[in-house]
Each structure stands twice: as C-alpha cells, then as structure tokens.
Design brief:
Transcription Regulator spoIIAA, globular, alpha/beta, Rossmann fold, single chain, 4 domains, 13 helices
C-alpha cells in the first residue's frame, strides 16, 4: 500500500481521467496523498495541446521526478521522447490505457519502468471515481474524434472516435446524481460527433440524459462546428429541457474560410454564424463560448480581418484565445511560421476585443433575477452558474450544490455579481 499524489491539467476529459485513475488507485488498496512532498509515487495527467501547456508539463515532470513518477494523459502518446528526455525513469500511461493504471503503478513502485500506451477496449463509463468537485460529475461520453485538424495533436494522442453506449452513460449519471452531483458535464474530445460510430448522436443523448427523473443540470461540452448542420435542429429541440444549461462551446478558430480549409476544420464561418444565431434567437439569453487561433502559418492580414469581423458580428460571450504554436507531429508544424512579433500583435488586438465584448455581454444581465446553482469554490470564494452558465459570485457563505434566487447587481469582464433574494 502506497501514498500516491495525482494532479491533472488540460480539458475536462483530462480531469475526468484523473478522477477515474484516483478511483482505481483507492480501489486497488492505495491511498491518495494530500501533497507531492508527502507521497511515495507521483502521477501527473498531462495535456499537450499548446506549446505553453507542454512547457508547463515539462516543468511539472522535472519537479515531480524526485519520486517514482507516472506520466499519464496526452503527452506520453503524442510526445513520449519529451518525457524520456527529462525523466528517463518515468513510467507512461496513455489516455486510453486507464485499465492498466494499477499495473503501471505497481511496477513503478518497485523501481521498474512500465510503458502502457496502447488503446484498451475498456469503457471509461462505470469506472470508480474520486471526484475533484463533489457536486460536479464529469462524464466522458467518447474518446478520440473524427477530425484531422492540421494544427492539433489531440488526434495523435487519442485516436479515432470511440463513443460509449448511451445506456451506460445514463446509468453512470443516475448513479452520480444519487451520489450528490448537482451538475453533469458531458465531455469528450469532440461532442459534436458523439454516437456516429454506434448509430446514435448527441441530440439523442442529451434528450435521454434530460429525461432522468432527478434534480440536476447538464452542461454540454465542446463540439466542433463541422457537425452542426447534421445535428443542429434536433440539438435545438433537446436544449428545450430546463435541465440543460443554455450554453454552447463551439470553436470557430478563424473567420477566414481559406484558413479554415488550411486547418482542415471541415466547416465555414457561415456554419458558426448560423448556429449562434439560431440558438440565440430560440432561447434569447444564451451563452456562446468559442476558440480563436491567431497566427496560423498561412494567415494573411485579410484573413485576420475576417476573424475580427466575425467576432464583432457574432459577439461570443467567451473567447479562448491562443497564439498559434507548432506542435510536433502535426502537418502545420512543417509550414513556414509567421513572425512572432506579428502573432503577438494580432493576439493583443483579439484579446482587447474579446474583453470589450465579454463586458458588454455581461452588462446585459444587470437586474436579472433567477436561480443560481453554486458549483465551485475558488480561492475561498463560492461561485455559481445561472441557467445560461454565466458565472455568478455573491458576497456571503453558501454550500456547494445549493440553488438560490439571486439578483444581478454588477457586471465585470469575467462574470456577474449578485445578491440573494429572500
């Protein structure tokens, strides 16, 4: 029996992986350490989607390698040589190899290196978990994707789409809600193509999950716009359920169709515009989150201007901005890169525009009254979400999982400030 420290980075699917790894560790007779300094073994669930993130992973690997170390997640599958360079003794566990967790840990504790990167046929639904947040259940509905984006390393790490069975997902959610979860995240590499490999799709899943006779909210995670024409109308219908947060994360990446084609995104700017318009028109107050990459290798000034025009036209509530960085193994890494100073200039312009729009969108909520579900404690402050997944803070103590009536009295770039109503 050993004390094991687990830490995770990246997307919600990575955090779901860390919860399952922790569950397997506890079920296997080990205990979870409260710190890396107090552990017998360290395990890090990594992300490799950006240069800056990969650099952070390298720094963490260096720090954690004073103890026996297991590196899990995307980095081992996409860049195993990077791990070997900084800790040649570290064991590795791929994102779809979680069933081998205890074997890898046991070998590593004995001073032996174990590499498990091959995909297993083990479904990630129904595995034991130790939840990071007791009121949020992160449900991985699939692994991998159907896309071939030229800038993205995720496909190298997670492979082709493998959707999990709807009945298993519904049973897992029912269990998690009965166990105290008030909020369920439907998560995967790309929710938009969920079920295409098993004869179903996302709207059918959202409808089924919404039909569970329990009190909870559903957050539908990231989906690529390329699948929207195929599922949009039925997805709109599934979002009519009051349990579903009126929130979409649909990464556009660029407003230029030429760049989208070079990125192999499989969609046009019009698909994104049509989708945002339809959801906002149907539901009124609706939160749109998107991703923008500036400085893609072949991005010209006119391409960048098209991105700015699209942002101004659609006014997304949240813009996750990235400067393009070449990732090893991707097609775009072989292209001629733009000057770093030019990428920084474009990034600053988008950043300032995104701040302005976020503040303007949040001001539209001033005076709103309604229920807020408190789902997170960050830096000692409790935060909640309203029906459109807008972050709300109140200056008083509340319990996680509590849902109360709130009036919005102030807006900032980052969220809303409210007061409780009696």
């Amino acid at each position: 029996m050993a004390k094991i420290w687990v830490e995770a980075y990246g997307c919600s699917a990575s955090f779901a992986d860390s919860e399952m790894i922790s569950g397997l560790i506890v079920n296997g007779g080990h205990t979870l350490s409260q710190s890396a300094s107090d552990s017998d073994l360290n395990l890090i669930v990594t992300c490799s989607v950006k240069d800056a993130t990969a650099n952070k992973m390298v720094n963490r690997i260096k720090k954690l390698s004073s103890k026996p170390l297991v590196v899990a997640g995307c980095l081992p599958k996409a860049e195993s040589s990077t791990i070997e360079k900084f800790d040649p003794r570290a064991s590795m566990l791929g994102p779809n190899s979680i069933g081998k967790t205890l074997d890898v840990i046991d070998f590593t504790l004995k001073g032996k290196r174990r590499i498990e990167l091959e995909d297993s046929d083990l479904s990630k639904v129904g595995l034991p978990k130790v939840r990071i947040n007791p009121v949020v259940g992160i449900i991985e509905i699939a692994s991998g994707c159907k896309s071939e984006c030229t800038f993205c390393q995720t496909k190298l790490a997670k492979g082709d789409l493998q959707s999990y069975r709807m009945g298993d997902i519904v049973r897992q959610i029912r269990h998690d809600v009965d166990d105290g979860c008030k909020e369920i995240w439907l998560s995967s590499t790309d929710n938009g193509c969920y079920g295409f490999d098993i004869g179903t799709d996302l709207p059918e899943l959202v409808t089924s999950v919404g039909g569970i006779n329990r009190d909870f909210m559903i957050r539908v995670g990231m989906m690529n716009p390329m699948y929207m024409p195929r599922i949009r109308e039925r997805l709109l219908e599934s979002f009519e359920n009051d349990k579903v947060f009126k929130f979409l994360h649909i990464p556009i990446q660029s407003g230029s169709n030429r760049i989208l084609k070079e990125m192999k995104r499989g969609h046009t700017a019009k698909v994104f515009k049509d989708t945002t318009e339809k959801f906002q028109k149907k539901f009124g107050k609706f939160t749109i989150s998107t991703d923008i990459i500036v400085g893609f290798p072949s991005e010209r000034e006119d391409d960048f201007e098209l991105t700015l025009e699209l942002i101004k036209e659609t006014r997304p509530d949240v813009i996750n901005l990235s400067r393009y960085s070449a990732r090893p193994g991707t097609k775009a890494a072989k292209m001629k890169q733009l000057d770093v100073s030019e990428v920084k200039r474009r990034s600053k312009i988008v950043f300032e525009l995104a701040k302005k729009i976020a503040y303007e969108r949040n001001k539209e909520w001033l005076g709103w009254k309604g229920k807020v579900l408190f789902d997170e404690i960050s830096d000692g402050v409790i935060k909640g979400r309203n029906f459109a997944y807008k972050p709300v803070i109140i200056n008083e103590e509340r319990r996680l999982g509590e849902k109360i009536q709130v009036e919005i009295i102030k807006a900032t770039q980052h969220g809303l400030l409210g007061k409780t109503l009696s």
